[in-house]
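User: Fold this one for me? It's Peptide/nickel transport system permease protein.
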Amino acid sequence: MAGFLLRQLAGFLVLLIAVSLLVFVVFDLLPGDPAAVMLGTSARPDTLAALRVELGLDQPVFLRWLAWLGAATMGDFGRSITYGMPVSGLIAQRMAVTLPLALMALALALALGLASGFLAARRPGAWADRVAVVFAQGGMAVPNFWIGLLLILVFANTLGWMPGGGFPGWDAGIASALTSLTMPAVALALPQAAVLCRVTRGALLETASEDFLRTARAKGLSETSALLRHGAPNALPPILTVVGFQFAFLVAGAVLVENVFALPGLGQLAYQALAQRDLVTMQAVALLLAASVVLVNALVDALQVWVDPRRRAPT
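Assistant: Here's what I get for Peptide/nickel transport system permease protein.
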């Protein structure tokens, strides 16, 4: 197990370095000059040249990437061109919205997806199974930003039960902050719950025909107890894989939902940085999102080895 974790850590570091190079080069190839964006179109050529030297834009791209990566490992992502403040501070402020939103959405997706998938697999062909299949197919077909717009129309504009957008901040109280994140979390969670429902149902149905479950039923266990005690542990590996991808998506894919609900999160920061061509901020956000995806996938692989001893390499 220790050897597996060391290999995972080494692979994580190599992949993260490769991703950082890709992110830096891709954003560096975008058209336009960051110095011209900062100073405006009426800036004098000598002033532009001086700013390019100050920003390091006169250096080869590989040397600039090495300098950027070295500073990033120390938590220094540079200074935002648009906001005029350190990017690390900006990201910390925005993560205070995006991370709780992603965790709320993941909790809702797990609760709804696992419960509906289990009920569907418990009695295939029954009404609960048919409802779960419709939910899974419909949920995967509907984009989360459209769900967000529908929630705003019904619960904010029509019924007035929930705020239609904005974030009051954690200083306004936990209840007020969580209330403002509820509808965005639901909009993010429903498509992911549909995917999880389908995967859970399929994994449990696959294990339901195994000999050990037939033996458990023959010993007098009910279908529910047999699935919970013997089927669920064997169905965990594919479910964990999906959950890992979902958390990474919820963090990285909240751009549209945060803009629909006017939430000052990481997604809105990425959108504003792209609109203003703030390359420093865009590179930092892209690296952070890529690192979160790689890290979550590495953790999921480790969890799968822990829950499934068959995947452990012989020592």
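One thing worth pointing out: Residues 87-122 form the longest helix (36 residues).
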